[in-house]
Amino acid sequence: MLYTEVVEIIADQLKQFDSERPVHKAFGPGIGPFGEPQILREIAARLSRQGIRAQTKRTPDLALQHEQAIEFKIVRPFGDNGREAENWSVNLLHPYAGNVSLIGDAIKLSGLSGYRSKGLFVIGYEHDPPKIPLDPLFSLFELIAKTVMGISLGKRVEERRDQLVHPEHQVLRCVGWELEQ
Questions:
Q1: Cβ contacts of residue 83 below 8 Å, gap of 6+?
Q2: Kind plus residue range of the DSSP H or E element containing 38
Q3: What does the DSSP assignment read for 40-51?
């Protein structure tokens, strides 16, 4: 399966899950407040129901068909309470091996064997219109990953889904990069 298809399928699944008005802990309804482990379990379950073998693991976060390894990060500039979150951009940008940032994940994936393809995936949330747009963060991630860290990223792939149910997480942006091998 092409990585562009993976991004599109997951975006569709997340939009469908959001339309079911799920609630995580005491937060408002919608997928925005869900953490990475909960979202990944939901994605894996929905992919499996579609006949795509999906397994959540420690490394990688998600393995598809035993051929694709994907690491995920969530970026949301605002919390459920409508206040700007602290350190939200660090999830992508901290440029050190062994770190839990997307750059750290890219370094980890580069050394992982046994997969035909490896990809990075961001689940991002914005307001409509954006109070804090995510585009500068994505561009900065690409700049640091490629120029500073020497990570070979493929072209950015994105799927956007509007009209999410949560008042602070109104737009879903699924953004992915396949690592060039």
A1: none
A2: helix 36-49
A3: HHHHHHHHHHTT
Burial class of 147 by CB neighbour count within 10 A (0 to 12, 13 to 18, 19+): exposed
Total tally of structural domains belonging to the chain: 1
Beta bridge partners of 171: 126
* Torsion, Cα of 96, 132, 156, 111 (10° steps): 20
**Tens digits of residue pLDDT in 115-143:** 999 999 999 999 999 999 999 999 999 99
pLDDT for 39 beyond 80 = yes
**What is the C-alpha separation between 142 and 35, in angstroms, rounded?**
24
How far apart CA 172 and CA 160 sit, in angstroms, is 6
Reduce the DSSP state of residue 18 to 3 states and report it: helix
DSSP 89: T
pLDDT of residue 4: 97
Residue 97 identity: A
H-state helical runs in 50-150: 90-93, 102-110, 135-143
**Contact residues for 20 (Cβ-Cβ < 8 A; gap 6+):** none
Residue 100 CA to residue 90 CA, distance in Å, equals 9
For residues 180 and 141, the answer to whether their CB atoms sit within 8 Å is no
Structural domain that includes position 71? 3-178
